[in-house]
Amino acid sequence: TERILFDNDTGIDDALALVYLLSLPQVELVAVASTPGNVSADQVARNNLALLQLCGRTGVPVAVGAAAPLEIPLVTTPETHGPQGIGYAELPPPSGQTARAGAVDLWIDAVRRNPGELTALVTAPLTNFALALRKEPRLPELLKRVVVMGGAFYYQGNTTPTAEWNTHVDPHAAAEVFAAFEGLPEERLPIVCALETTERIELRPGHVARLAREAGCAEPELVLPEDPPGKRSTASVPLIRVLSDALRFYFEFHRHYDQGYLAHVHDVFAAAVAAGTADYRTRSATVHVETGPGLLAGTTVPDFRGLWGRKPNARIVSWNDPPAVFDEVLGSIGALARR
Ligand code: BDR
Ligand code: CA
User: Fold this and answer.
1) 202 neighbors 322 (Cβ within 8 angstroms)
2) Which residues form the Inosine/uridine-preferring nucleoside hydrolase domain (predicted)?
3) Which of 13, 1, 71 is nearest to 207 (CA)?
4) Cβ of 165 below 6 Å from ligand 1
5) pLDDT of residue 235
6) What burial letters (b/e) apply to 199-212, b meaning 16+ CB within 10 Å?
7) Is the distance from the beta carbon of residue 121 to the nearest atom of ligand 1 less than 6 Å?
8) Is the pTM of this model over 0.90?
9) pLDDT value at position 254?
10) Which of 116, 157, 167, 149 is nearest to 14 (CA)?
11) Any idea which ligand is nearest the CA of 159?
């Protein structure tokens, strides 16, 4: 069993990652912490609650995190993920469970109660994690494993020419987190899934159709490039309808930026790494995060060769297997939707 503490900023790809984790019998989702990023932390928590409800898993605690990044104002991204962070999807209104305050304390309590047992998965700016580290500096030793989506090590950013979104939103938090791991044994270093591997997880309309088929929906194609923007899914299974409507928005966003009718589902890959279902290779490096204002804010620089004379603080994923990720993820979510 993988016991996972998930910190996210749901977020369309975060949503797919969350549903994927819920679909895995071998994963125990211990708690979900909500970080401001794609949308405000309150909205992230509402999205997480609604998705848990949709998947019949209202018992998982959800907490709201910091209101803003450590030192700079929050910038959200409604153009990428929609005003509510979930594209065109209409989530069920929350019933019963509410989000608690204090995601930072939730992190610390969960880790202290389960020393050496939890995998922390962060697919958002590292704000909550950095704040938790300030209060409990032993977190790197107390966690079993850390998996992070963030950074761009081949200098093709998705937010600025060199910076990735999560590190750009809160570069100070990212710098603090990497610093906390410097010099620890290799197996303790965060596994970092950055753009050069997560942008290879290219979801296409055919994948959504396959998901619908796996879930036993009658509709063969649900998200097609020739459809008018904003068209809603008529899939008979509610979970497929929600994912399809969310992903349509994400496809339209990527097309707008001339990337084609596809969507990079970064966080899904990180979730598969955390769950132990993805094949990948890593290279250890000392990561520097540029915190200053200006053109390079949020840029992540890796020293693979020890040229700075410092110890590694991260294991950067250098290879992954996108077709295998899709086989695994679509099959597993499809089975969940069929249940
Ligand atoms: C990251 O930015 C967010 O918008 C996505 O959810 C993902 O975590 C990719 O740069
Ligand atoms: Ca995210």
Assistant:
1) yes
2) 4-326
3) 13
4) yes
5) 87
6) bbbbbbbebbbbbb
7) no
8) yes
9) 87
10) 149
11) 1
Cα 274 from Cα 267, distance rounded (Å): 11
Ion ligand 2, residue ranges at CB < 5 A: 9, 11, 14, 123-124, 267
Report the pLDDT value the prediction gives residue 190, as an integer from 0 to 100. Answer: 98
Q: CA dist 333 to 22, 94, 184, Å?
A: 8, 22, 36
Query: Is residue 194 within 8 Å of 300, Cβ to Cβ?
Result: yes
User: Are 291 and 187 spatial neighbours (Cβ–Cβ below 8 Å)?
Assistant: no
Q: What is the chain's Cα-based Rg?
A: 19
Residue 106, token pair as written in the block? 């939730």
CB 336 within 8 A of CB 23: yes
159 lines ligand 1 (CB under 6 A): no
* Nearby residues of 142 by Cβ (< 8 Å), 6 or more positions away: 111, 112, 115, 116, 136
The CA distance from 210 to 230, in Å, is: 21
